[in-house]
Structure formats: structure tokens, C-alpha cells
Amino acid sequence: MLFCSRKCPIKRDNPPNIKKTNGSPPPPFMLCSPEELLQKSQALSSTWQRYLAAPSFESFVELAVSINSFTEFLIDKGVTALHHASHQLEQITLALFNQEVAHPLPQDALDDLNERLLALGRMAITHATATADLVERRHDLLHPTPHDLHVSQTWLIGQDQAAWASLLVQLGYFGMDTAFITWEQSLPDTAGVAPLLLLDLGSLPEAEWGHRIQTLRQRFAMGQLIGLGVHSDFEQLQQALRSGCDSCLLQGTSSHAIVEHILELNERHEQEAYRVLIVEDSKTASHLIRRTLEENQIISEIVNDPRQVLNALRQFNPDLILMDMYMPNCTGVEAARIIRQHGEFLSTPIVYLSGETNVALQVDAMRLGGDHFLTKPFNPVFLNAIVKSKIERYRALRRTMYHDSLTGLLNHSSGKNTLDMVLSSVVHEGGFMSVVMMDIDHFKQVNDTYGHPVGDQVIRSLSWLLKQRLRKQDIICRYGGEEFLIGLPHTDAEQALAIMDRIRQDFSQIRHPVGDRHFHATASGGIATYPLYQNGDSLIKAADEALYQAKRAGRNRIYTDED
Question: CATH classification of 275-399 is 3.40.50.720, yes or no?
């Protein structure tokens, strides 16, 4: 797949015979498909070959960007060993930027880079082949419909099953096929379909951690390894993470907190691609920037005339603006000030690009609407890092505005607005849409009896369950207090009833811990469906009336507007 320097060519590996997965998603916690992994690896190989064929500073920059792109791609993909190797390669490549080296690089540097790239390519093939096999096996076992459970097999390795009984049960409610096995037992062959391993390190002598974790990491290179029962001291955490654990949860962490951590892992890959608006009068420079961003899966739009920036902002809705400082007809500072006059773009980050080195002028530029300043020529890897960090903070800020802080779901106003937008799309396309109002039964009694922190945990449990069981395109909103608004596009009343009743049943089985005891909570729901009701407000009102009918009938049940 890769070859070494011109001095010592190495025969390329033949591409692996990877079966097509027919669009099937990778197993949970392995957050990339084998095709994606191979494609990225082969793109990196091609970039290296181009550098060897025509070594120059420009082609070396392209190589550095490609390595950075590969490293970024591997983050949170459940391929820890591969990501570690790629990150080391990235560090070595970036270090060469800081040295006064000519191109081609010295032979020892070429040989070192080639050896690392070749090893990286082989690891990618190994992981891709393993993932393809897992997907194929899952496909044979599971044939989910859009609303079927999101099932994954999970193994908890420890000594005392009774100590983890509550956690095993809780994971089952959230669609995870969880099994317990002792450290002395060997994982059966079927364990290959389970990408998530929970390790009770507290039940194992610390001297054995390194060997045990490394062995599991080698066997489950594509999986997630989570260490449980680790003390908070630096040495224990360092040993567990260095040996191959992806994360650690400290001793005393509750079952609910462990479940929350696992569920969050499954949500990380769902965020939309970053979007950047490039405002640059030079077509050559703007396309080079776009190419750099695309290497890191960042979508971009180019505006060469700053006078068109407002229209582009409304149509493209970017997460960040890259703004050239000096353009004909309008400077970058003037454009930024004009953008800041519009409330909807007041918080959109603006990063200036300029050859300006005068610090005073840079400060003035940022004072007048900018957020950061990059001096040309800039390191493309640094550009990507700045762009991503600014967007992540911007999205976090936006999330606090539109999402409920307790559950992470849409808040009241953004939920209603989203419902109206999705309903408009359904009306245009034709079909059904069901709206559900769901409420936790006797919630005041839960708060009065067990306290508000426990009540908050009950609310979070229902929100987790809804997020696990519903589709990405479904609307889930914390409407207020213990009440939830749910929108199910292209779902009729009968389908909605079956979906929500299954969720209701499983919620009623969740054990909510209070000290050394636990209790169960229940929920009721009401359903209304378009086209019987023509707008969002009437759907919500009808679903709310059905909810109160369910409560009057005895609670812990789901009613439709026809009941």
C-alpha cells in the first residue's frame, strides 16, 4: 500500500478483499466503516507517493495536512492503537516544519517516515478487515427496522458478578446485550461482535493491569475499553490509559453515571460536519484554503466579493468565517462590522487571514468584530486546529441556547420551532407525522420522597432511553419539568403507539438507586397524528389531551387521540 523512499522501494501490499457492507453501519463504538478507513489510508499513501515523486515544500505541506486529516479522522473512532500511531507520525512531521531542512528530506528522515507510514497502512488494513467481518456478522444476526432497538453486545470482565448486577440490568434497558465474564475465563469466539469491554480493574491486582489490558487491546483493536473502579491517583490512571484503556471511571462511580458515559460514546459521531465560509478575493488562495479544510472533512463555501457575504451567510449558515483582511471595495474589518449588525450572526466566529504583522492593527481588527488573527503564510495544520477549536466552542455556546442543560435535549422553544419545520417538510412531501406528549407519573411524589437530585436522574434516564430508541431524524424535546415532546415524522398513529409503548415498558423496569435501595418510575403518553391535525399547535394540544386521558385511566400507558 505504501512504499519507501526512492532509494529503497518496497512492494505495495495488495488491497484487502473487503466485503461490501451494503451501507450497514459499523458495530456500535466502532465509529467508522471499513471503506472509510481504507479510503483515508489510501489517500495518505497517495500523498506520500506524490511527495517522493516530486519532493518540495508544497508537497510536504500537502503530506502534513493529509497526516493531520487522518489523525483527526481517527479520534473517537474506537481505534486507539491506530490513532496513537498516526498521532506520533503527525508530531514527527510537524517537527520537521520547525527545522531548516531542504527537500527532499534527508535519507534518514525519509526512511523513518516511510517505515511509520507503511506500518500505519498495515494497521489500517488489519482494522478494516476486522471491522468488515464484524459488520457482516452483525448483519446476519440483526435485521433492524427503523424503529428497532439499537442492540450491541457488551462484556463486563471482573470477579464478582453480583457487584455489577445493577449495571448489567440498566444496560439491558438501553438496548445493550450485556454479559459478565470473570478474568479467569476466556472470551468466547462470539465476543468478536462486541466492541465494548468494561473492565473491573478494582478486582484485579494492579501489577496485572498492564498485561491484561494490553492483551485485550491487541485482540479487540477496534473496540472500546473502559476501565472501572480505578482510584483517582495519577499513577493508576496513567497505567490504565497507557496500557490501552480508552477511558477510566473512578471507584465509586454510580451505575447511572457509567450508563451515561457509555451512551455519550455512542452519540459523539452524530454531530454534523463543520461549515466554514471563506471570504477571500483571491480565487487561488480561497481554493487552497478550501482544499486544506476538506482534508479534515470541513465543508466550505467561497465568497470572492465581500459585498455578497450577507446572502452567503443566510444561505450557507456557517459555523465560522475565514476573512481576508485586505480586499478591493471592502476591507475585512468593514465586512466584520457589517456582519455584527445582524443579530443572528453576532456570535459567529470570525478569523482574519492577513499578512499584517503590526500587532496594534491586529488588536484593533479583533476589537472591531474579529475573534482570531492568522498571519499569512500560515501552517495549514495550525489553521485546521484553530478552525476546529473555534467551531467547537461556538457550537457549545449555541447548544446552551437551544438545548436543555439537564438532558441535552432540545428546550421548549427550539423543540416547537423544530417541530414546525419538520411538519412543513412532511406536508410538502406527503405522509404522516405523529406527535407525542410524554410525562413521568407521580413525579412530584418522586421529588418529595427522594429529593430533587434523584428526580433529575429519573428525568435523565427517560431522556437517555428516548435518544437510544428513536431515530436521528425524530424530534426529542424536554417540554418542561418532567414532560417531553416527541415528533415522529413519517410515522402513523399505530406505528407511534407501538414504538412509544415499548419505550414505556422498558422505562418502568429501570432501577433508580437511592442509597442501598432502589425504586421504579413509570410514564404515560398521548399521541396525535397529522393529517388529522394540521399544524404544530393543534398536534401538541391533541397529544396533551390524549396524555391526560392516559393519566385518568390509571397512568403507565400510552393513548392516541382516538382512544
Answer: no
| pLDDT per position as a tens digit, 181-239 | 999 998 776 544 446 899 999 999 999 999 999 988 877 766 788 999 999 889 999 99
Domain parsing of the chain, residue ranges: 34-141, 152-269, 275-399, 412-560
Q: Which residues of 136-162 are buried (b: 16+ CB within 10 A; e: fewer)?
A: bebeeeeeeeebebbebbbbbbbeeee
CATH architecture of structural domain 152-269:
3-Layer(aba) Sandwich (3.40)
Q: Measure Cα distances from 137 to 38, 186, 250, 447, 489 in Å.
A: 20, 20, 34, 45, 31
Three-state DSSP class for 191? helix
Span 412-560 CATH architecture? 2-Layer Sandwich (3.30)
* 34-141 CATH pick, 1.20.120, 1.20.144, 1.10.10, 1.10.3470: 1.20.120
pLDDT tens-place string over residues 421-477 = 999 999 988 899 999 999 999 999 999 999 998 899 899 889 989 988 899 899 999
Asked if 153 contacts 193 with a C-beta cutoff of 8 angstroms, the reply is yes
Q: What contacts 360, CB < 8 A, 6 or more positions away?
A: none
pLDDT the model gives residue 195: 67
Place of cell 397524528: 529
What residues contact residue 329 under an 8 Å CB cut-off, 6+ apart?
Answer: 305, 306, 307
- What's the pLDDT tens digit per position in 494-542? 999 999 999 999 999 888 878 778 899 999 999 999 999 999 999 999 9
